[in-house]
Amino acid sequence: MSAASSMQGTLAVFRREIVGYFATPVAYVFIAVFLAMSSVFTFASELGGFFERGEADLRPFFGFHPWLYLFLVPAISMRLWAEERKSGSIELLMTLPLAVWQSVIGKFLAAWAFIAVALALTFPLWITVSYLGEPDHGVIVAGYLGSLLMAGGFLALGSCVSALTKNQIIAFVLTLVASLLLLLLGFPVVQSVIAGWAPLGVAETLASLSVLTRFEAISRGVLAPADVLYFVSLIAVLLAANSILVELLKAE
Question: For the segment 125-184, what is each residue's pLDDT rounded down to a tens digit?
């Protein structure tokens, strides 16, 4: 299979999926909830306290993204394969002249692009901060990049989980729990507990797998290659696992 035909197949799945998102009201509800919650978490005095902080930056905005994605990304990923399995349309998808990995990547990219659209629609917050002060735009760009990469990691995890079940609710819950574990690995309390019973090497390895730690570093404007590579590797490994799971379904 040539690179051109591979790309065409992936793009065909991508177009099918992205059109499907915006053909239902669920997409618009997701975007509305994401935008509303982002604004509340940023400006509410009890939460982000933007005005009380007296600093022109978007740190409160990005600080709540891990917890927003914890619930919103599973709501997007749960349908990727579970719905196909429940409706039986996965059998039709498997008869198309496409490799499994093309379907997996096409579905993932469509969902990731949809989340990217929701993230891009938060640009009025950036404009507001720029109007009120002189923020470090490089840090803000890094924050958006880190947020998108983190969403991609959670989404790849959710896509993998979605291939395990026909029930979207089960897929949602399992993805939420798995994503929460990836976040909690970055908490000092959790790290200290792990260090209390695990060898130092194991504790350090588990700490390095924390999504929260990696994202916080990027959102501060520190674009370390290791942090970017972490998210890229996480996405790649989970999509590879996703492809293997779908191959097993195909063989059933």
Answer: 888 888 877 878 888 899 999 999 999 999 999 999 998 888 899 999 999 999 998 888
Q: What are the Cα distances from residue 237, in Å, to 13, 50, 69, 160, 232?
A: 20, 37, 20, 10, 9
Can you read off the two tokens belonging to residue 48?
Answer: 């982000």
Residue 100 token pair:
């499994």
Domain ranges of the chain: 3-247
Contact 65, 147 (CB under 8 A): yes
CA angle 84, 88, 94 (to 5 degrees): 75
Contact 180, 96 (CB under 8 A): no
d(CA 4, CA 8): 6
Which residue in this structure is represented by tokens 């970055």? 186
Please tell me the distance from the alpha carbon of residue 223 to that of residue 138, in angstroms, as a whole number.
10
Tens digits of residue pLDDT in 42-86: 776 555 555 556 566 788 888 889 988 998 899 899 888 887 777
- 228-242 as b/e, with b when 16 or more CB fall inside 10 Å? eebbeebbeebbebb
Record the tokens describing residue 172, joined without a space: 């949602």
Other Cβ atoms within 10 Å of 4 Cβ, number: 8
**Whole-model pTM above 0.85?**
yes
